[in-house]
Every structure is written in C-alpha cells, then in structure tokens.
Automatic annotation (TrEMBL):
Catalytic activity: D-fructose 6-phosphate + L-glutamine = D-glucosamine 6-phosphate + L-glutamate
Name of the protein in question: Glutamine--fructose-6-phosphate aminotransferase [isomerizing]
Gene: glmS_2
Biological function: Catalyzes the first step in hexosamine metabolism, converting fructose-6P into glucosamine-6P using glutamine as a nitrogen source.
Top class in the EC scheme: transferase
Compartment annotation: Cytoplasm
Statement: the UniProt record of this protein carries the keyword ATP-binding: no
Subunit (UniProt): Homodimer.
Domain SIS: 42-182, 214-351
Highest taxon in the source lineage: Bacteria
Length: 361
C-alpha cells in the first residue's frame, strides 16, 4: 500500500520524520546525558576496552557506516573506519580481539555482510549488527546490536533506512562516548540536536517543490559530480549512488579536497556539480572549491546552511549540531535523485539490474 504516494520511494522518503522519531524513542537518558542501547550485550568495562571499530556493509549501508565511523571517532575518540563487507572478506584481514566489528544491513540478509560476520565470529571477534529487519540472518548471527526501526522498506533503493542507520550510529557513538571521555555538556548538546531532527526533516520535505524544479533542470545531464569534505563526503557518495541507481545518469563522488588532483579536468558547463557545503570549520575550504568550479564555468548546486553566491542554486537545510549535519544534508538529495528520475520517466521502485536484497555473491 503506497498510502497515496505514486511510488514506494516517495512514500519512504516522506516517512523519515516519523522513522527518526522511532529510532530515538525510549533510548535517551537525560539523567546521565547518554543513550541506552539494551541489545548491545556490551558492558561498560568491555566498551572501555575497545581500541578500534571496524564497520562493514554494502552499498548504501556502507555509506551510512562511513558516517557512523566518523561519529564514533569524533564522539568516542576510538579509531574507526568503514569498509565494504565484500572487500574485507576477500583480503584476509587482520582480526583483532580489541576491535569491535559492526555489520550494517537494511535487509539483514546481504550475503557478503553475513559471510563477513560468520568469518569474524569463527575467528573469535565480537560483532554487533545495525540492522533494520527484525530477526533477519545478520541480526541472529551477531553477538548483539541495535535495530534501526525504519519500518518496512519496499523500494529497491534505500532512503529512510539510510537516514535511520546514521541516527542509530549517532546513538551508538554517543553511548560509547559517554562511557569514555565525552562530557555531560556535549552529551546534552547532542541529545538536544537529536531531538530536533524529526521537525527539521519535516521542514526539508516541505521544500520538495523547489527541489523538483531544480531536478528538472538537471534531468538531461549525461554525468554529474558530487563533492563534499569529511562529513560531507559520505553524503556526496550516497547522493551520487542514489542518482545513478534510479536515473541512470552517470555520477561520481569525490572529496572536494581531491578536485585539483584530477577530477577538475572534467569540469565544464555540461558537467554539473552538487556540493555539500555545511557551515562548519571547513566552510572556507568548501567555498574555495566552488570558486574553482565556477572559474571553469561549471554549474553548481549547493546543499548548504545558507545561500552560496558561487552556486547556481542553493538548497538551504536547517542547521543542527555540526556532528549531526550529514543526517539532514542527505535528505534533499534523495528528493533530487527522485525528481530527476521521474522527469526522465524511469521505473523508480524497480531500477534495472538491481534487487532489493542481494543474497548471492
Ligand atoms: C542502494 C541500495 C543497495 C543496498 C545494498 C545493501 O540504494 O539499496 O546499495 O544498500 O545492497 O543492502 P542491505 O542494507 O540490505 O544489506
């Protein structure tokens, strides 16, 4: 049942304020400015012993894991990174007892992720699952974890589950941080930020008509470039994946800092750039990248916290705490991909060559 929407993708994008409300519900502890995650099976002593976090997933879940790794490193000061599960599994990785492994999957059935979990467990590692589908194979195989409570996701491409997974990682990072060195003040600040998310998401969704107009301008493009820095880079990767999956427009994502090391050669009027430009400590750097692109007559769409002069269009999103900004900046770009694909007459819920869950190698 699409509940009055033309596609499941549109329905699922539109459900995100409620979905984020669900992932937060019952987990916030104001007394200690932390969050409770009952299913982790990881006590405080064990949590303090973690020396490294390795996050594994595929596709969109891998991108959510990249943001998760940044959140964990920033809030809990534990070195963390994300890697595609399939790459990890085939490179005979060093499996270390002081590393916490986290497997991320919407379906909980993706074979490459499941196989990585099984291999890790065989070697005695501790593996958590960050999973949407309750009782799925990865959820059962993991030592513990958290459900992301996005609700059923029917469209082949993931939207609301991506957002909820990133919020789930923010909760995990806050939890680990408050067991270690994150201050009460920072805990409070982030909890207040998390509570603001549903209303801010609703506000972004209200700008859909404006995003649709922009999408219709870009619908004919042969190729598009997505750039961001640090927190903005996984957002760029995910937005680029979403666009290519449903519109079949070729898209690339690069860290903005890498532009001058090669991809700047591609910039010309026919290759539009989508730039993630948050109001954070990297704002000036990001603006410099816009100037470089403008100097080559490249068209620019900025996703930012205020209007960007160098951009042809700016989608302004509400500001939250810096660490949580990527959660909101991804949402208008889901709508951008959606309306671009719609304008091109694509079969949005069932893109060619793709399946919702990849249970084979
Ligand atoms: C992208 C997409 C895929 C999945 C990937 C992992 O929109 O849907 O890239 O994210 O196949 O699937 P899960 O999360 O079910 O393990």
């Amino acid at each position: 049942d699409m509940g009055g929407h033309d596609t499941y993708m549109h329905k699922e994008i539109s459900e995100q304020a409620d979905a984020v409300d669900r992932v937060l519900r019952g987990r916030i502890d104001d007394r200690f400015s932390t969050v409770h995650l009952g299913g982790l099976n990881l006590d405080a002593r064990e949590a303090r012993g973690i020396r490294r976090v390795k996050i594994l997933g595929c596709g969109t879940s891998y991108h959510a894991g990249m943001i998760g790794a940044q959140l964990i490193e920033e809030l809990a000061r534990i070195p963390a990174d994300a890697e595609p599960a399939s790459e990890f599994r085939y490179r005979n990785p060093v499996v270390d007892p002081d590393t916490l492994y986290v497997a991320v999957s919407q379906s909980g059935e993706t074979y490459d992720v499941l196989a990585a979990v099984q291999e890790l467990k065989r070697k005695g590692a501790r593996v958590l699952g960050v999973v949407n589908v309750v009782g799925s194979a990865i959820a059962r195989e993991a030592d513990g974890g958290m459900y992301v409570h996005a609700g059923p996701e029917v469209c082949v491409v993931s939207t609301k589950c991506f957002t909820n997974t990133v919020v789930a990682f923010a909760l995990l990072a806050l939890h680990l941080g408050r067991i270690r060195d994150l201050s009460v003040a920072d805990g409070k600040r982030l909890i207040a930020g998390l509570r603001k998310l549903p209303a801010q998401i609703a506000a972004i969704l209200e700008t859909e008509d404006e995003i649709k107009k922009i999408a219709e301008e870009y619908a004919g493009a042969q190729s598009m470039m997505f750039i961001g820095r640090v927190r903005g880079y996984p957002v760029a990767l995910e937005a680029s994946l979403k666009l290519k999956e449903i519109s079949y427009i070729h898209a690339e994502a690069y860290p903005a800092s890498e532009l001058k090391h090669g991809p700047l050669a591609l910039i010309e009027p026919a290759l539009p750039t989508v730039a993630i430009v948050p109001d954070d400590d990297l704002l000036d750097k990001n603006r410099a990248a816009l100037e470089e692109i403008k100097a080559r007559s490249g068209r620019i769409l900025a996703v930012a916290h205020r209007e960007q002069e160098k951009a042809d269009h700016t989608i302004v999103v509400p500001k939250n705490e810096t660490e949580l900004d990527p959660i909101l900046m991804g949402i208008p770009l889901q709508l951008l991909a959606y309306h671009t694909a719609l304008a091109m007459g694509r079969d949005i819920d069932k893109p060619r060559n793709l399946a919702k869950s990849v249970t084979v190698e």
